[in-house]
Amino acid sequence: MIWVCDLEEDCSDGSDETTCSELSSSTTESIKTCKEFQFLCSDGRCVPLQWVCDLDEDCSDGSDEASCPELSSSTTESSMTCSEDNFRCKNGLCIPRIQNCDGEDDCGDSSDE
């Protein structure tokens, strides 16, 4: 995937950001959305859903790993748990219970709907 005009230099020479018009942060926040197969980081960047809860912080603010169950090398998917006030998605992501069955795919795999 190529990240162009996302306000983050992904190419070593910064060429992915050089032809972009400068947007104010309020404008960027109001229009920022991700594709259905992407996760919207708290910092506004979109990353592939498979990068969420993979034990690697892909968002500069770590939001792709923030709501994940803690894993150890001996942890299996069936033994992962979320806190009591969260819902555990089939992909292992923990989301607030209030987002379960709210008409939006908060898990990224539709298991909360």
From TrEMBL:
GO terms for cellular component: endomembrane system; plasma membrane. Keywords: Disulfide bond, Glycoprotein, Membrane, Repeat, Transmembrane, Transmembrane helix. Disulfide bonds join C34-C46, C41-C59, C53-C68, C82-C94, C89-C107. It is a single-pass membrane protein. The keyword NAD does not apply. Transmembrane segments: none annotated. It is found in: Endomembrane system; Membrane. PROSITE patterns: LDLRA_1 (PS01209), LDLRA_2 (PS50068). Residues 68-82 have a biased composition (Low complexity). Residues 61-82 are annotated as: Disordered. Its main location: membrane. Pfam families: Ldl_recept_a. The keyword Disulfide bond applies. SMART domains: LDLa (SM00192). GO terms for biological process: vesicle-mediated transport. PANTHER family: LOW-DENSITY LIPOPROTEIN RECEPTOR-RELATED. This is Uncharacterized protein. The lineage of its organism: Eukaryota, Metazoa, Ecdysozoa, Arthropoda, Hexapoda.
